[in-house]
């Protein structure tokens, strides 16, 4: 059963029309990356899938179930883990207490396994959230989501503000998730690193999908990768035309 199928999402914040007919899929065991400049609608897409900002129109199917109007709690109950931008850990709770917050679902991930996968968290299990580095906070945020034993993991900007070595470590953890059979939808500004681990890529511009295809093919298009931060639908359309002419 396909973990995620999104069709025709139209999402608004008040009167502001943010997502325009957004559609995407995540197959079983895939890492799919959603790219685009700031304000393109990437976080809104994740929030629409999770039921935090319900779409006005369109459909979200999770494991074949229509989840379009479900609450975030119900979406999580289907087996979806969500790691929001900015980590959102509890600053005054210890690492161990942060890990006790989620209501654990049956499955292979428990606190013991989390500490085996994230030895740095095991070393700092008695430290409060505010005492952790940015990378450790990101690891804690991912670890907390894993305790739900998700079949699909949504990650919003996991590399934001992290040093390059820590970014590499976080992305290795994401690759481990795929090996564990967890499908991943990754929103990320670090274009090159994310394309390096993803199977497929989508690019959003002004709330609309302007690219859908192989991550490896996109990674090999130097011009597109360099211009990703400021990509516009017009520029990408010109690029498609030029590619067709070559």
Automatic annotation (TrEMBL):
PROSITE patterns from the UniProt entry: ABC_TRANSPORTER_2
The name this protein goes by in its record: ABC transporter ATP-binding protein
Similarity comment: family membership: Belongs to the ABC transporter superfamily.
Organism of origin: Bradyrhizobium macuxiense
Classification via Pfam families: ABC_tran (PF00005)
GO MF, one annotated term: ATP binding
Keywords noted in UniProt: Amino-acid transport, ATP-binding, Nucleotide-binding, Transport
Gene3D superfamilies recorded: P-loop containing nucleotide triphosphate hydrolases (3.40.50.300)
Superkingdom field: Bacteria
InterPro entries: AAA+_ATPase, ABC_transporter-like_ATP-bd, BCAA_Transport_ATP-bd_LivF, P-loop_NTPase
GO biological process, one term: L-amino acid transport
Function field: Involved in beta-(1-->2)glucan export. Transmembrane domains (TMD) form a pore in the inner membrane and the ATP-binding domain (NBD) is responsible for energy generation.
């Amino acid at each position: 059963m396909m973990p995620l199928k999104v069709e025709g999402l139209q999402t608004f914040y008040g009167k502001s029309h943010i997502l325009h007919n957004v559609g995407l899929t995540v197959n079983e065991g895939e890492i799919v990356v959603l790219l685009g400049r700031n304000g393109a609608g990437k976080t809104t897409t994740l929030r629409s899938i999770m039921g935090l900002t319900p779409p006005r129109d369109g459909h979200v199917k999770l494991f074949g179930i229509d989840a379009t109007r479900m609450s975030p709690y119900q979406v999580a109950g289907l087996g979806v883990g969500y790691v929001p931008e900015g980590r959102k850990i509890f600053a005054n709770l210890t690492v161990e207490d942060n890990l006790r917050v989620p209501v654990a679902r049956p499955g292979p991930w428990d606190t013991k396994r989390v500490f085996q996968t994230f030895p740095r968290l095991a070393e700092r299990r008695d430290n409060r959230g505010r005492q952790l580095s940015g990378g450790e906070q990101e690891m804690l945020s991912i670890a907390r989501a894993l305790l739900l034993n998700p079949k699909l993991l949504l990650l919003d900007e996991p590399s934001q503000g992290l040093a390059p070595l820590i970014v590499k470590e976080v992305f290795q953890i994401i690759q481990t998730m795929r090996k564990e059979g967890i499908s991943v939808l990754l929103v990320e500004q670090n274009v090159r690193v994310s394309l390096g681990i993803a199977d497929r890529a989508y690019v959003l511009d002004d709330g609309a999908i302007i690219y859908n295809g192989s991550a490896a093919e996109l990674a090999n298009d130097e011009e597109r990768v360099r211009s990703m931060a400021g990509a516009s639908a017009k520029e990408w359309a010109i690029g498609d035309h030029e590619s067709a002419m070559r």
